[in-house]
Protein 1
Amino acid sequence: MDSETYMDVRDEHPTNAEWRTLIDEFEDGRRQGAIYNLDRSDDREFDAIFVGGGAGGRFGSAFMRARGGRQLTIDQWPFLGGSCPHQACVPHHLFSEAARELDLARTLSGRFWYPEFDESKASVLDMVQLFVSGRNSAHSFMNWQSKEQLGMEYILNATASVIDAHTVEVEGEIFTAKNLVLATGSATVFPDVPGIDKAGVFDYATLVEDLDYNPRSCVIIGGSKVAIEYGSFFQAAGCQTTILARSPLMQGSGLHHIDDDLREYVVDGMRRRGIQIFDGTETLEILGDERATGVRVRMADGSVRDIPCDMVFVGTGERPNSDPFVKALGVSVDDRGAVIVDDHMRTSVPGVYAVGDLIGAPMEMFKARKCGMTAARNIMGEDYSFDFSEYPDFLHSTYEVTWVGLSEREAREEYGDVIVIQMPPPGVPYGDIPLPCSDGTMLFAFTHPELSGFQKAVFDSKSRRLVGAHHVGYGAKDGFQYLDFLIHKVGVTIDQLAEMNELFLNPSHFIQLSRLRAGAMQLESL
Amino acid sequence: MDSETYMDVRDEHPTNAEWRTLIDEFEDGRRQGAIYNLDRSDDREFDAIFVGGGAGGRFGSAFMRARGGRQLTIDQWPFLGGSCPHQACVPHHLFSEAARELDLARTLSGRFWYPEFDESKASVLDMVQLFVSGRNSAHSFMNWQSKEQLGMEYILNATASVIDAHTVEVEGEIFTAKNLVLATGSATVFPDVPGIDKAGVFDYATLVEDLDYNPRSCVIIGGSKVAIEYGSFFQAAGCQTTILARSPLMQGSGLHHIDDDLREYVVDGMRRRGIQIFDGTETLEILGDERATGVRVRMADGSVRDIPCDMVFVGTGERPNSDPFVKALGVSVDDRGAVIVDDHMRTSVPGVYAVGDLIGAPMEMFKARKCGMTAARNIMGEDYSFDFSEYPDFLHSTYEVTWVGLSEREAREEYGDVIVIQMPPPGVPYGDIPLPCSDGTMLFAFTHPELSGFQKAVFDSKSRRLVGAHHVGYGAKDGFQYLDFLIHKVGVTIDQLAEMNELFLNPSHFIQLSRLRAGAMQLESL
């Protein structure tokens, strides 16, 4: 291996800024070859080789190191952290924040310090380019933290070829380990539609890699979270957007625990902001010669329509990247390609674990990271299981939409007698109550109260326990992580909520509204 | 009593919109006299009369009703809810949200969809007027909710004269009750400085009531939370602001549990945005003839300086409105005028309770409301105490700044061996790491990473328990309410945090960062 294709950083300690420069050079082709951070003086066998250094692989590796184990993590990219900071959740959050700010700028156009909104300045391309210009900062931090703080060993910018359940080849070198942890994620399934490979057809990944023009009209195929989130951003960024879904938005796509009122508040809000949404559609063809110029679709009523656009975005969902492991190891997969694991993350092949998006839905960060931790704990001798059937969830429209536990409908089915604490209260027009208002919806509360959000908490009347919480607005997401714990691990009651110390104004009004009702022996809705 | 000075709404059920119209009419003088929502057919004695229908009075009343008790709540304003939605926390939150948006618009001036920032459009007056134009919506909701949902009885727009511990006179009518609950709040102490009564000198209350010009330069006397929050807003709204404090900001003023690094991030951020901050000052005189034109101040070095301005804002703190009760009932007060109560909210006079700002610091919503609940529970026969020595806290600069539990320094004193999980990590320049980033700091993360926030969590190494959490950014406030419960009631450990389900990107990184370290038997900082 010559120095142009081999970089050993083991005895060097690049700063975050130096890593940033290195990764920039790898990305633009000035540098090539693998990056080695390998302790060749350590003669212990690896407890595990992690194939893939994204969320699951990196967190599993960190946990194993913290436990005193030895791991090696291999990733195809010149950085750890995987698709989240490179193509997925980080750009999505930047775009969603832009959508919120654009929504505010357009809604308040010509008022206060907001000038008349200039549609020509709204640009999807600007935000994509901003993201691409900055993403290597997060990447450099992952490399730095993993090496300097977490003590991990890794090989980056290299392909790991799995030979058997204990053996991986990287750049012609053989590495063996007691176990393998597979963590190579998933990729968008492009639907089998004529013309889907035309220029101008993107998914979330190719959008950030390939977009080189500013789209002004978009058709989104699919109704997933990604479709809602990117559609809301495109529309806010001046790109007229049409969503072609099969099921009504937020009803299919594996989202659970969503009530009709929450869904309507969100979807009506999207429509109000100009997005066209069609359910029950079937996409027939991507129109255009070399470049997509529209989409032919069969509508719910059976009619066929051509919708012109200069961008097509695919938001139909993702498929695990499991094929290489089926071939090399014979691991069992389900009919969607997800590697089948038990609650210890063990695959059908002894010594081989799989984590993250590779094992299927939900394809969320908490699951990927906790899968990695679960694999590490079991490999290190602990008997540890992870059940991800219940979890808090969120998506962005121009709002942050968050939910945890049961929907009101589900709670009524399960408990019969439930009470609901809701803002605005049922029957009161949204525009009559500028609550819930807090950081993020105050300007709406005083100008367009009907845009200032929606929320409710659901309690089982008998046990007085909180069983579900739902929020549309901003600033509640962090709290819902803890509400998940409080609901599922503590069994928090309305009486305990009433005794908590609220930070008012707070985005979710659950604590103070609970206090207004908790005095009663027989609970009532609010 | 004729109909012009007597309005009985008991058998009417005004909607929120109708209440809004009524309150507008009371405010602009088209209507006068008291509003009665009194059930004269109920011959039960009142369990309590609440003198004051703000946070403490209203929540206490609601709790008493929920418990089956009978209360009467009397307020001088034509609405319930008190100063929070009228002059205090609600305008402050609107102004702080405006400050954040103005900060973003100025920082990103000329980039993306943000036009060159036009300083002439920034206006304190605009936001004050916006608030005043809309505040009656919140007021109307309080009246509606209290009557229709909470079953309260009340008399509004009327003065309650306390006769003795069981007797109150309102508009010439005598009302008796088993108990009194005093809940009349506090008011700004205007410092004893020559010229303090000139035009152009405001506190948070007179600002919203009286401001009739757009200030372009402001001197703030005092270094309280209110000074920081309003100062940050004034500066963002184009009004050059100077803060004259005695102690360094966020060190005095009753704020506890704040570390130097958090404080520096916030105060440096204020300075960076153009606010002049001077510690160790003594205000000598308000300059100007009838109208304030500047402030004469003795600086820390003993020199005397005149600072010109067209507005003076007083942020030195508040004093409880206890004088009438000292006079009428002889309740004991401390040297700051706070009514002295035990942990049941009982004053020195049997049958008389006091709640909220009237009993002194901390003058926060959670305390006022929970005081009200505490009084109600005890009056209704429960033996219930409320200890507010520990609580989560926050303030706004152009950021939301939130903290709970111990500072790192306090934790080291108490536990000796603590670990700290911090972003950005100590020693790494803020500008090198665009983390922590999440909803609200994403645009900064990709343009000005040094502005994207700061956070840390402090753990006792031995017990592995979280003992303190600190955050500068947006979107963490709601979560800190639950962290307070988790720290003080659950004793949450780093291991439990590591097993929680994060919603990524999340404003506070405490869950996932805990997971990176929790694997170790001997914890290390991160």
Protein 2
Amino acid sequence: MRIVIPIFDGITALDAIGPYEVLSRLPGATVIFAGHAQGPVHTDNGMLKLLADVPFEQAGDLDALIVPGGFGTRALLSDERMLSWLRKAHEQARWTTSVCTGSLLLAAAGILTGKEATTHWLEMETLAKLGARPVPRRVVEAGDGIVTAAGVSAGIDMALTLADAIAGPEVAQAIQLAIEYDPQPPFEAGSPRTAPTPIVERVRRAAARRS
Amino acid sequence: MRIVIPIFDGITALDAIGPYEVLSRLPGATVIFAGHAQGPVHTDNGMLKLLADVPFEQAGDLDALIVPGGFGTRALLSDERMLSWLRKAHEQARWTTSVCTGSLLLAAAGILTGKEATTHWLEMETLAKLGARPVPRRVVEAGDGIVTAAGVSAGIDMALTLADAIAGPEVAQAIQLAIEYDPQPPFEAGSPRTAPTPIVERVRRAAARRS
């Protein structure tokens, strides 16, 4: 089971590391981090560097593609090198998945045209403009092995769903227990449907300032 | 607000990246990744490399220390260089925190002696042997700014608790919403108290084989 995760400057680290932490624990799994070049990529805030093992085109055969998001995706929506590689990877992979604004890259590559998909709650309109049919769920299965997840932390739930589909519920539950994923958030503010309105507006304004 | 996260070979990536993703979003926060040397560290499964910015001793002043875990902690329980640095960092920091088996390092450094603390559910006895008083909760606040979290994914809940204590509930909720932390695990198997017994035994056996 070869799992390839493309990483890039401006990535949101948890988008990639959540699914990595789950899926690397599948029996026989190998996770490869691919980048525009071998070497470090800087996360969205510049405070962390992850190392890409290989350039995209040398990532080799793959069973699953996991596309993370982050502000860095904006510059990549017209990066024909990356979009072309995503199309080829999707054709080969049994599973094509994304976390957060990673789905914008899949959509820009034409992979989500007319399909149900999700993304970070702030970017649902962008996803629609790129041809997908946004659905406000945490994990959206569109058929043909295409699975998209909502913002950042949703990649953990998506990966457990995928672990179940790939290796069955016992393996998925064992992974959940191994990473002690028994979430107890101190607030009920993780979705625009549950967060207090002033908090939603605050996050919306902060994102607008960054755009 | 300077937040220092020590990283090391054999680290569990999500232990570090969960809190990083939350706390890097605090207003004015800087996160520094420190290692035995500047350069790459390999995660527990060898599939990912994170870059350390500086050696421990050059991490500089800090307000918060976050110690992640992973199988790599075992070799570090007698690493006097690291334990000595942890003691100094703890003396200076307002907050001394850990995720998963990171608490074993804090305990080995003498920081948790006689104090309530938690760790990965498989390592509670080890934590007791190192002088702490294990408490089976997801996030344990021992006073004096010492906060420990249970296994791997618990670092996200711990960091949101910390964000609340540092910057108040509005900021913490805004961060929770920004990372869309509205967890919906597909199974109720994230704790030995909720997982089916055969799953608990399976994970226990797998860990014993690795020891």
